[in-house]
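Fold sample X.
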Amino acid sequence: MRIVYEDQSLIVVDKPSGLLTMSAGRAGEETAYSMLTDYMLGTGRIFIVHRLDRDTSGLLVFAKDQETKLALQENWDEAVIERKYIAFLEGEIKDEEGWIETWQYESPKSMKVHCYPIDRDGDPDRPPRRDWKYASSHCRTLKVITIDGKQYTKVEFSLETGRKNQIRAHSEWIGHPIAGDRKYGSQSNPFCRLALHAQTLSFIHPWTGKTLKFTAPLPKSLRKSH
């Protein structure tokens, strides 16, 4: 795991695919949190600001104190200026770009996020059900590639909202699941991993007020498309 940025208040890392952000309850399991806890041993503590799925790679922010954690979490949507992900979706997407807007609901039984359509007159602040959440993603087609005779579309997602599994659920919703994402309908795994990478993150530092922008290059595991 590579440290991209560090100051007295926070640490930004480039998390590899296959590494949990924090433990799911297994004793001794290595996670991004445990690795940074070891890194800070004797000098301070680590606090989780947000998470990435185990199999998603890319940029992740941790705080070094409770005050920074709360300052970022309580104002995350306002603090974050830009969040961009690269994904490889099954099939060919001909539309150059567009918005995906749905209600999202996480089933407590399957732990899977489901999408539901929004009426034209729907209000994002007034979901039809209390446990539904508004989710909005901008999707931009970068290129169509062929791997082992199958077509995939390299896509850039920009997030307006940051719901759990938002990109994965939205990709399934439009009929083009992320390669390697069996949970959300994928039928292939050409990269031997979930083909999703958190590439760009820009946010306002909670104490200095300065805009920080970071980019994590596409990992080798996703470069077979180039």
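Fold sample Y, listed below.
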Amino acid sequence: MAALPPVLYSESDIAERVARLAKVLAALPSPPQVAAPVLVGAFVFAADLMRALARKGVPLETEMLWLRSYGNARTGSAISVLAAPSEHVRGKHVLLLDGVLDKGHTMLRAIALLREAGAATITTVVAVDKHHPDAAAVADYALYTGVHDFIVGYGMDDAGLYRSLPYIGKVEP
């Protein structure tokens, strides 16, 4: 059995940051009404953040998006839409959630889909925004920024591996 990836961000640090972020999002002038996690990478982060928001008095409806950009590679490719948002988001304040924002193309595609479905507002939140200088998008909120490693865990994977790790780890090239 191969060694697990080294810890970049611990489970306890992630939990603290999620709680702080929930406090900020709950205090927005127009708090979110619907969470729109991008599958598959955002499901762990989305579950944690949605529970933290519920503790702050902001229970959210859920509208899953399923977009695929990596497949089994470490570099993004064409974005496939496997499940688009329904009109359920029409007129609502949507919290768009993803695990990692690398170049931003998945985020831009998800925003376009939510706008087409009629979302009133879209607030983007990711676990990690890499802040690439040539990124097409930047998240409104992120637990961590400026990470340059290839990361796994906390819902994110490397060709299907390590998604279930409770921490964010880095994978060597």
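Sample Y note: Helices lie at 11-26, 43-55, 105-116.
Also: The CA atoms of residues 104 and 137 lie 5 Å apart.
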